[in-house]
Amino acid sequence: INMEGYSITLDGVDYPCWGFAVILLNWAALKEKAGIDEMFKKEGLEYRLTRTDIKTDPDTGLPYESVATIAESTNSEKVLGPKDSPQNSVSVDLDTTNNIWQMRVGYPDGFAAPWLKGLTALVVILSVAISLLLMTILVAKKDMKVLLYKMMPPMVVKKLRRGETVVQKYDLATIFFSDIVGFTKMSSEMSPLDV
């Protein structure tokens, strides 16, 4: 309903009144008063606020979506990409009375920490180093086991691993198998003839 004779003056411009309630928003003035650009710039963020309207095509009569940018930072295109691609950003849908607004915010370098690539390289290098050390230990252990089995009979090696003393007596000679660490203690308790 056109309310003739009534108008609203906003920023020096007269707007005619239509209906019983009129809301006119000057987005540039609102954006400046809110300090949204400075707030996002202080945090190192880029942003874009869009509105999606459902309109009817006058030629076909079919509905279609129209996206309008309400506010955005100066470098939002570089960070957020064309048509709000999700690289380096996150979005929140704001449900309003007659359409959907979307706020998309992102960092120029993305959400990954700058030291993440260096840390990943360090983890790979450390895992390779630890694997090589473990392989070296296992190979050395296997080599010692092979050497031990070449020097002594398998039955003697098994008894020595259990901590048993192995003494085999023959008529002309006695063969004594022992580990080197325990040999000095054991030989000090034996008579010279037994050694």
From TrEMBL:
<dbReference type="InterPro" id="IPR001054">
    <property type="entry name" value="A/G_cyclase"/>
</dbReference>
<dbReference type="GO" id="GO:0004016">
    <property type="term" value="F:adenylate cyclase activity"/>
</dbReference>
<keyword id="KW-0547">Nucleotide-binding</keyword>
<keyword id="KW-0812">Transmembrane</keyword>
<dbReference type="InterPro" id="IPR029787">
    <property type="entry name" value="Nucleotide_cyclase"/>
</dbReference>
<keyword id="KW-0472">Membrane</keyword>
<keyword id="KW-1133">Transmembrane helix</keyword>
<keyword id="KW-0456">Lyase</keyword>
<dbReference type="GO" id="GO:0035556">
    <property type="term" value="P:intracellular signal transduction"/>
</dbReference>
<dbReference type="GO" id="GO:0004383">
    <property type="term" value="F:guanylate cyclase activity"/>
</dbReference>
<dbReference type="GO" id="GO:0000166">
    <property type="term" value="F:nucleotide binding"/>
</dbReference>
<dbReference type="GO" id="GO:0005886">
    <property type="term" value="C:plasma membrane"/>
</dbReference>
<feature type="transmembrane region" description="Helical">
    <location>
        <begin position="119"/>
        <end position="140"/>
    </location>
</feature>
<dbReference type="GO" id="GO:0007168">
    <property type="term" value="P:receptor guanylyl cyclase signaling pathway"/>
</dbReference>
<feature type="domain" description="Guanylate cyclase">
    <location>
        <begin position="174"/>
        <end position="195"/>
    </location>
</feature>
<dbReference type="GO" id="GO:0001653">
    <property type="term" value="F:peptide receptor activity"/>
</dbReference>
<protein>
    <recommendedName>
        <fullName>Guanylate cyclase domain-containing protein</fullName>
    </recommendedName>
</protein>
<dbReference type="InterPro" id="IPR050401">
    <property type="entry name" value="Cyclic_nucleotide_synthase"/>
</dbReference>
